[in-house]
Amino acid sequence: MVKPLVAQAESGEATALHLISAPELIFDEDAVSDALTAAFEGVTDSSEVRAAAVRILGDAQKAGRAEIARAFAATPFDARAMTSAYCFLTDQLVRATLQIAVQRLHPKPNPTSGERLAVIGVGGYGRGEMAPFSDVDLLFLIPYKATAWTESVIESMLYMLWDLKLKVGHSTRTIRDCIRLGTEDYTIQTALLEHRFIAGNLDLTADLDEALKTDLFSGSGRSFIEAKLQERGLRHRKQGLRYQVEPNVKEAKGGLRDLQSLFWIAKRIYSVETAADLVDRGIFLEEEFKTFVAAENFLWAVRGHLHLLSGRATEQLTFDMQVAVAEAMGYADTGGRRGVEVFMQNYFRHATQVGELTRIFLTKLESIHIKAEPLLERIFRRRPRMRNGYHVVGGRLAIVDDAAFIADKLNLLRIFEEALRTGMLIHPDAMRLVKLNLNLIDDDMRNNAEAQRIFLDLMLKHGNPERGLRRMNELGVLSAFIPEFENIVAMMQFNMYHSYTVDEHTIQCITNLALIEKGELEEDLPVASNILKRGVNRKVIYVALLLHDIAKGRPEDHSILGAQMARKIAPRLGLNKAEVDTVEWLVRYHLLMSDMAQKRDIADPRTVRDFAKAVQTVKRLDLLCVLTVCDIRGVGPNTWNNWKAVLIRGLYRQTKRALETGLEDLNRANRGNEAKKTLRAALADWPRKDLQIETARHYPPYWQGLHVTAHVVFAQQLRDIKDGEIRIDLHPDDDRDATRACFVMADHPGIFARLAGALALVGANVVDARSYTTKDGYVTDAFWIQDADGNPYDAARLPRLRQMISKTLKGEILAREELKSRDKVKKRERAFRVPTHITFDNDGSEIYTIIEVDTRDRPGLLYDLTRSLAEANVYIANAVIATYGEQVVDTFYVKDMFGLKYHSESKQKGLEKRLRLAIAEGIERAQDE
């Protein structure tokens, strides 16, 4: 029989805590003890003892982990019981290995005082919180220098724990070592702050407790706190904004580490044992403590499911894991939203609340002079003059009299105006007062003219609308004043295109608008900057941006429903009828310019004509252009690029000219004549006869669809071309953030598809493509391509690119076969659902049918679609590719083999069936492991 160690019962063990299952179901001590006794009977060889121990403990561990996982799946939000259960199971395994090492492997009936040993949990394990695959951090505490016996016991324990596949972090130290190292290293000091006796000598642990109390944790702890806050700041800078869509549950802003840091500091200063003690100390209100517990419980539940589903200690909520965790926690699809989106909205709301709690706590530290006031405040002592009712506390804007402040409910808005006017941060006590009185913001206040003025001024007057809006949003003021905004607070859009939640995206859009107004983006955005310099109705553009995504997350089209909502909201913000009409139109059509520029051929006069008819006035065009630019830039840090800039700029300039000089100026003949004239000037050194041949060999669409630089390249490639020759020109087009690939060869069916296949094989992303045939039987195809990072190809990579393309075109490499192994969707991206929509438009172009394929993106998609069309004898003139994360819209300008549009419904259905089959087969191939 393996006897329990004397000190085990006094260990403060996890059995006293609420466990997710009965203790004996997690680890049956009696059964394990009996099994070990039977296994050790007559065994003297230490390696056999250890092997038997690992086998029996391994079985118990496996059964215990399975029981915890089963119980947690049944009660997926019971995080505290789950973390305690893993700690309890780990405690039993650690104790058992110590018993076996002391009693079986290295028995010593009468150990000396120098051979005392205590096993202590530190860090998260010491705190009594463990996720399924958390590290086990152990401190082996010895009184003096390690003896041969203690070294042997520790070594045997570690080997058994490692054989049990536990990730053990360990140190062997004396009490003096702990004090010395804890003084030198704040990470060690933090670990010791949360130590917990597991097994061994209890007296030695008591001595450590006393020494830590008197020698390490006495004094104010100011340097410890500064170190923890610096650590937090570095972590936040590394992780980025709180609303990044693939957050790290442990390390991200508003994550578990923030809560833990807060508690470490509280424990260091106030010697609290639990978060509940913070209420007694007057740091948190009861309601705030409940928020703390709810956030902590939610985040631990997420972390627990994340570990179990991935089978390892992963902390990043990647897209595929978000879906799996949401399902495990019981979130279901509802009302036009996926369960995963509702889950992530809850996640971000808890993360926001963690930020609020941290602010409240840090202010408390400042008030007792343990945390230094902000550095800038110390350097620049000049204080701005405060309006009545406000004063400065700890370098922040504070309220003089709470009761007087609340007596006038408009103060719930005025405080944000005062903060922007003075450039000061709002004191957390003032924020707390605002949050506790949100119920005062009622319909009477929303319709108050002064309240409307204050709100609009927050966006229009102080040059920093982002700061005011973000703070108002985090405190709930924004959605109290505009109740319709509540639905999009912390709402995640489950796709790879949007980097932020909907509310944060909205604030990012307004930030971009403010930056353009200040002239800080003039070089990047010359058109939008000039529009704002000339002047627009600022109320209209700011309100339109604030409301453009207000209807996201509902089953209806968010542009149509959003416009209806804007008609009701805009008057409440103080806009007159004409302004309301314009805001409504902008919200309704806020995607129109982006769609026209990115999904249509803007070189086609019909595209510009249709867009001009929709916009109707230059005033609307100006507003829509600015809104479009801000909307795209607000999606994520890398969404805006030169390619999109060129498209938006081109559409704006052509449409403005058409609206000012008349739509009749938009015709092919005018464009063709201008293009030929420009080419003659560019090739002034060519003989006249050669120029005549060149300008006569192309059909009209060629002249309107390409810039003169491409016309020059094709002219040079076609000059003196030999039979059977393939000419390739690869050239960086820096203005468009792409590489232009020009191909000239004898025309034959399917050439466009072969080119698409060749480019897919070299990993090139096609963003635009033009295909033209000459009157003398050649094809002139231009593709604009980017590398995997969305950049033009580096010059050093172009020779290999040319070689691979050439081999594919000559038939030396078969794209269809080669792509089978390369056309794969990454695991983390498989969770996205992108339904396929295929539309046929015979009105958007004078001579082509426009086929728009909206579906899931993957490397070989364009090749599959163009090959499918080629097999149906479809002539592809242009392909315009717009990518939105995992979604892509491939638009093809096509004619049939007789040069006619596809008017017949049966022909359209036949082509749609072919395209859907190509997509389905490609998806199946891409999902294969």
What would you note in describing this structure?
The chain is of the alpha+beta class and 929 residues long. Helices cover 55% and strands 10% of the residues. An 8-stranded antiparallel beta sheet has the order 7-8-10-9-13-14-12-11, with helices on both faces. A 4-stranded mixed beta sheet has the order 3-2-1-4. Strands 5-6 form a two-stranded antiparallel ribbon. A hairpin with a 7-residue loop joins strand 11 and strand 12 (849-856). Helix 22 runs antiparallel to helix 24 and helix 27 runs antiparallel to helix 28. The longest helix is centred in the first third of the chain and has 29 residues, at 46-74. It starts with 22 loop residues before the first helix and ends with a helix. Residues 1-16 have low confidence and may be disordered.
By secondary-structure content and strand pairing, the structural class works out as: alpha+beta
- Radius of gyration in whole Å, from Cα? 34 Å
**Major beta sheet, strand line-up:** 7-8-10-9-13-14-12-11
- How far apart lie the N and C ends? 50 Å
Total beta-strand segments: 14
What form results from the Cα inertia axes?
A: globular
Q: Which consecutive residue ranges, at least 5 long each, have pLDDT under 50? A: 1-16
How helical, in percent, are the residues? 55-70%
Estimate the strand proportion. 5-15%
- The biggest beta sheet, please? 8 strands, antiparallel
Would you tell me the overall average pLDDT? 88
Count of individual helical segments: 41
